[in-house]
Design a protein that fits this description.
It is found in: Cytoplasm. This is Signal recognition particle protein. One of its GO terms (cellular component) is signal recognition particle. Keywords: Cytoplasm, GTP-binding, Hydrolase, Nucleotide-binding, Ribonucleoprotein, RNA-binding, Signal recognition particle. The protein has 21 helices and eight strands. With 441 residues, the chain is of the alpha/beta class. It folds into three domains: 84 residues, SRP54, nucleotide-binding domain (Four Helix Bundle (Hemerythrin (Met), subunit A)), CATH 1.20.120.140; 193 residues, Rossmann fold (3-Layer(aba) Sandwich), CATH 3.40.50.300; 139 residues, Orthogonal Bundle (434 Repressor (Amino-terminal Domain)), CATH 1.10.260. The protein has an eight-stranded mixed β-sheet with strand order 3-2-4-1-5-6-7-8, with helices on both faces. Helix 14 crosses helix 20. The longest helix has 26 residues. The C terminus is likely disordered. Bound molecules: guanosine-5'-diphosphate. Guanosine-5'-diphosphate (GDP) binds next to helix 6.
């Protein structure tokens, strides 16, 4: 996710970060390198120009060049500019209270991830305590209705569909009556998509919009298509009107151009990103956190939140405390390994860890090793997992036998555990004080 962009931007910043004094030439060079990185990331040229001009103007002011810490000041300017280009603050959905039904139209081309994102959004709203339903109004793509039904069962959200239906407005109206009878508070409508934008699709969507009078009109766009995702958003906004965008496949080798150009070119906020194929791989879009990721500062806050979704709140707070106090035990590690499986793609998590974004790929992680770690941890007694210091030579050989590994592997795991505890302590300090994350650069 954004790997190349992160690598290039953080390289450019590293060149000025530690300098006691910086010159206008240093700034020009760093901005030039960032400009190249943005262009390679397929950011719209107009957006790049605006970014470069405003950054240079501010960075060459007295405040930076004369400051005690010019490198950090410069990084702060780049960070703040990125945040502003990404849309400033997180934009929430604007839905009605639970007593009135809210409606969300999901729009987009075929293959953009519209059906998947509809289900992801439903799951998210359900977790927030709403009572969503999914409505199958994509009557063109043959498998869309069935796909939505399968996803609905998987996430435990009702799906309304009418087999053989020809008119999406009628499906909407029938779904709406069903929703009223069944205490539904949010209807998420998966609409028709085609391979390209064409008049019949726009006419149908317009009719559906007039009938449903939605609270949110979200365009689902594929981030892999770069600038063309932005063009599609512009056209949909002109023809139908949008309230926001969901950028999918943010986990894949996306260059980031769409995320950085969208707000400036269309004026519409990015509300969510899809970060994998599973229903839980869906995050609100936080401009400041994404800016942090692009600068290579990682995103500890999202990582902790992701963990909180899997653990319950109390457990998450306890874990946080344990990490701070170095009380993290082997038992916690085993629980974490088990939860990782529930958290979605590993890559999306790696990218949130400071210093790891752009450096490590999911393929580099040895899945067999994760398995053997789980086996070793499971072969320990609860007492051993609570206090690793009691694991002497005879216990080590028993654990090795029980887990089908070797004594050396058990020893390696224990050593690694010690290291991990130290690193966690550092990480939790960083998430409390982002400045210390910057000074790691
Ligand atoms: P639709 O035609 O717009 O309804 O598209 P689908 O929802 O069927 O998605 C098309 C493909 O993209 C499917 O294989 C999805 O699993 C995949 N997909 C959707 N969103 C994401 C995402 O955020 N990340 C990844 N990696 N794949 C996604």
């Amino acid at each position: 996710m954004l790997d190349k962009l992160t690598q290039k931007v953080s390289d450019a910043l590293r060149a000025v970060a530690g300098k006691a004094t910086i010159t206008e030439k240093n700034i020009d060079e760093a901005v030039d390198a960032i400009k190249m990185a943005l262009l390679e990331a397929d950011v719209n040229l107009r957006v790049v120009r605006r970014f470069v001009n405003s950054t240079i103007e501010e960075a060459k002011g007295e405040k930076v060049l004369r400051s005690v810490d010019p490198g950090q000041q410069f990084i702060k300017i780049v960070h703040d500019k990125l945040v502003s280009f990404l849309g400033d603050t997180k934009q929430d959905l604007e839905l009605k209270g639970p007593d009135t039904i809210s409606t969300i139209l999901m729009l987009g081309l075929q293959g953009s991830g519209k059906t998947t994102s509809s289900a992801k959004l439903a799951l998210r709203l359900k977790k927030e305590g709403r009572k969503p339903m999914l409505v199958a109004c994509d009557l063109v793509r043959p498998a869309a209705m069935e796909q939505l039904a399968v996803l609905g069962t998987q996430i435990g959200v009702p799906v309304f569909k009418e087999d053989g239906a020809k008119d999406s407005v009628k499906v909407y109206r029938d779904a709406s009556s069903w929703a009223q009878k069944n205490m539904i508070d949010t209807m998420i409508i998966d609409t028709t998509g085609r391979l390209q934008i064409d008049e019949p699709m726009m006419a149908e969507l317009s009719r559906l919009k007039d009938a449903a009078r939605p609270d949110e009109l979200l365009l689902v766009a594929d981030s892999m298509t770069g600038q063309s995702a932005v063009d599609i958003a512009k056209t949909f906004d002109e023809k139908i009107g949008l309230t926001g965008v969901v950028l999918t496949k943010f986990d894949s080798d996306t260059r980031g151009g769409a995320a950085l150009s969208l707000k400036t070119i269309t004026g519409k906020p990015l509300k969510f990103v899809g970060t994998g194929e599973k229903p839980e791989d869906f995050e609100p879009f936080y401009p400041d956190r994404i800016a942090g990721r692009i600068l290579g500062m990682g995103d500890v806050v999202s990582l902790v939140e992701k963990a909180q979704e899997v653990y319950d709140q109390k457990e998450a707070e306890e874990l946080q405390k344990k990490m701070e106090k170095e009380n993290f035990t082997l038992e916690d590690w085993l629980n974490q390994l088990k939860s990782v499986k529930k958290m979605g793609s590993l890559q999306s998590m790696i990218d949130m860890i400071p210093g790891m974004a752009g450096q490590v790929n999911e393929e580099d992680i040895d899945k067999a090793e994760l398995k053997s770690q789980e086996a070793i941890l499971s072969s320990m007694t609860k007492k051993e997992r609570a206090n690793h210091l009691i694991i002497g030579p005879s216990r080590r050989s028993r654990i090795a036998r029980g887990s089908g590994t070797s004594v050396a592997e058990v020893a390696r795991l224990l050593k690694r555990f010690e290291k991990m505890r130290t690193m966690m302590k550092k990480m939790s300090k960083m998430s409390k004080n982002p400045k210390s994350a910057q000074s790691m650069m």
